[in-house]
Fold this sequence. Notes:
The structure is a homodimer. Chain A is an alpha+beta fold. Chain A has six helices and five strands. Chains A, B: This is Fur family transcriptional regulator, zinc uptake regulator. Chains A, B: InterPro entries: FUR, Fur_C, WH-like_DNA-bd_sf, WH_DNA-bd_sf.
Amino acid sequence: MTTPMLTKNQSLVFDVLTKAEAPLSAYTILDKLRDQGFRAPLQVYRALDKLLEYGVVHRLESINSFVACAHPNEDCHSHGLVAFAICESCGQVIEFHDHEVDHRLTDWLKSQKFKAEKSTIEIRGHCANCAA
Amino acid sequence: MTTPMLTKNQSLVFDVLTKAEAPLSAYTILDKLRDQGFRAPLQVYRALDKLLEYGVVHRLESINSFVACAHPNEDCHSHGLVAFAICESCGQVIEFHDHEVDHRLTDWLKSQKFKAEKSTIEIRGHCANCAA
DNA sequence: GCAATTGATGTAATAACATAACATATCCGT
DNA sequence: ACGGATATGTTATGTTATTACATCAATTGC
Ligand SMILES: [Zn+2]
Ligand SMILES: [Zn+2]
Ligand SMILES: [Zn+2]
Ligand SMILES: [Zn+2]
């Protein structure tokens, strides 16, 4: 899918996420945008819904947070699973793809006749810097 | 880890999960246990914490719910990742392990010097029965 | 036995995350 | 201009999870 022009609110939310060094919760985004006129959670959630739909933002289920896609110009998203390594110390997220894992899971799902629609692979732990 | 004797509250919560045909939210569990004297969310969350620690229950991050382990007597949990296929129609959950996926992810994490502590692999979609 | 510690429980209040419902406004094709 | 679709604003509410503090019960060390 080619990403359509972003609306005002979508741009504001996307900018905040792009500049952030770690995933942000919807309410953190809301707080960062109060000066730009944001007043209610829905303004954030609605923008996020679209950004997720366009694939330029990912939701990290295990920490109820959102992060800008690290590979915005690759087409991996369209044909592969995305995985995240999330550092619980510094918040840094490494987004990666692995076709081997992808194929393996896809095969298993097929063997079960399970029709996959959305997948989540998240590893929490400590990054190289924080593992010390 | 060998599972210690469960306390009264832990047993009640575990029984509810074991009898359930789909994952349950903490508040759903609470409602099911009101007749047994449960009055507050914390009674459920505290029991769940222990059951998760013992590995007899899993938390499904993507749907904020809990499910009894489907392989209580296997030792896969101690040396491998667990994955879940979750049907969004009937709620059925298939829990599975795949050493190939496991090794592949582990290798990648090692290459990044990322110290993994907790992992989540959840596929949402439709099971064979519901895909129709 | 008995204080001290530890683990489990009870209860109330609050925090954090997410959506429903309804009203306006803006954009766009005709 | 009109009508439909999309985006936005606002209030209220629903859902999930934790903090704080009190009480109770079992265990340990003396
Ligand atoms: Zn991405
Ligand atoms: Zn780190
Ligand atoms: Zn299990
Ligand atoms: Zn199903």
